[in-house]
């Protein structure tokens, strides 16, 4: 099976691509980078879709998008966050529609930000969203991907929580402060934190690829969500460091501007469909996940 992947040089892609190759899949990356750092085992990549080899692609995995927490959300940055996801996905869908033999599946990333601030509400795939920038971003992103759906191509949309793993993602930014004993709750610490281990995140994409009946929206978060204050305590314990210094909400808004909502939004997200359809989480509990990451 030949797979076309976008965003393959990112945090998830660097774990997912070797996993696919180990199972015998051929992986080709479409990347905007001129000198990409390729995942282990990947040798084929193109800068433009027109450069792709003339072969039939059985599946497309779409992970493309500028890092949502990499910079403050200026108007220019917000425009880039949208275009790097929505416009890239639209171009990908147009390419899919031009294929004589279209891929059997498009698995396209989305995010927990689709739901917006949900307070104590338990979030399933059917939960109505609360409007805001992250919802609008994800809704446009998903709508663009859904245009690929046909009798030949099924579409899976993966609403991703906070991915935890070694060497990248949110942990790369959090660990230095926590290792020095300077970590602690954000704001009140009572908001829900939808986390998932990188290994499970990559395995979800592989599972959706290999389940011919899978289509539609899937929440990608561990089945046991925690509050932010409990996450910080668990991380401090895994590192054997204190984690009690709070970061007041006003300070977060001063430091990050509108982007502070990423750190303060409450999303008690459940992977209802994954569990119902038989996906088995390797790291369902936070302490075991953090222990593996921090060892």
Automatic annotation (TrEMBL):
<dbReference type="InterPro" id="IPR036291">
    <property type="entry name" value="NAD(P)-bd_dom_sf"/>
</dbReference>
<dbReference type="InterPro" id="IPR013549">
    <property type="entry name" value="DUF1731"/>
</dbReference>
<feature type="domain" description="DUF1731">
    <location>
        <begin position="247"/>
        <end position="293"/>
    </location>
</feature>
<protein>
    <submittedName>
        <fullName>TIGR01777 family oxidoreductase</fullName>
    </submittedName>
</protein>
<dbReference type="InterPro" id="IPR001509">
    <property type="entry name" value="Epimerase_deHydtase"/>
</dbReference>
<dbReference type="Pfam" id="PF08338">
    <property type="entry name" value="DUF1731"/>
</dbReference>
<feature type="domain" description="NAD-dependent epimerase/dehydratase">
    <location>
        <begin position="3"/>
        <end position="220"/>
    </location>
</feature>
<dbReference type="Pfam" id="PF01370">
    <property type="entry name" value="Epimerase"/>
</dbReference>
<comment type="similarity">
    <text>Belongs to the NAD(P)-dependent epimerase/dehydratase family. SDR39U1 subfamily.</text>
</comment>
<dbReference type="InterPro" id="IPR010099">
    <property type="entry name" value="SDR39U1"/>
</dbReference>
């Amino acid at each position: 099976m030949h797979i076309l992947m976008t965003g393959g040089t990112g945090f998830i892609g660097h774990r997912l691509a070797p996993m696919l190759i180990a199972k015998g899949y051929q992986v080709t990356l479409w990347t905007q980078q001129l000198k990409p750092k390729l995942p282990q085992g990947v040798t084929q990549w193109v800068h433009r879709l027109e450069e792709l080899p003339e072969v039939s692609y059985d599946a497309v995995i779409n992970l493309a998008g500028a890092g949502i927490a990499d910079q403050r959300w200026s108007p220019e940055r917000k425009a880039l966050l949208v275009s790097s996801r929505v416009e890239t996905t639209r171009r990908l869908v147009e390419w899919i529609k031009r294929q004589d033999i279209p891929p059997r599946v498009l698995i396209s990333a989305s995010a927990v930000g689709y739901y917006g601030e949900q307070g104590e509400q338990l979030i399933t795939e059917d939960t109505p969203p609360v409007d805001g920038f992250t919802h609008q971003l994800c809704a446009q992103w998903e709508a663009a991907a859904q245009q690929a759906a046909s009798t030949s191509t099924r579409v899976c949309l993966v609403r991703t929580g906070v991915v935890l793993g070694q060497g990248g993602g949110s942990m790369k930014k959090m660990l230095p402060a926590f290792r020095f004993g300077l970590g602690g709750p954000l704001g009140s610490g009572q908001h829900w934190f939808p986390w998932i281990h990188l290994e499970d995140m990559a395995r979800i994409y592989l599972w959706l690829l290999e389940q011919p009946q899978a289509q539609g929206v899937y929440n990608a978060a561990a089945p046991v969500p925690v509050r932010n204050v409990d996450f910080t305590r668990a991380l401090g314990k895994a590192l054997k460091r204190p984690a009690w210094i709070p970061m007041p909400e006003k300070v977060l808004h001063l430091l990050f501007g509108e982007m502070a909502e990423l750190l303060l939004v409450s999303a008690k997200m459940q992977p209802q469909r994954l569990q119902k359809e038989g996906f088995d989480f390797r790291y369902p509990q936070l302490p075991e996940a953090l222990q593996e990451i921090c060892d």
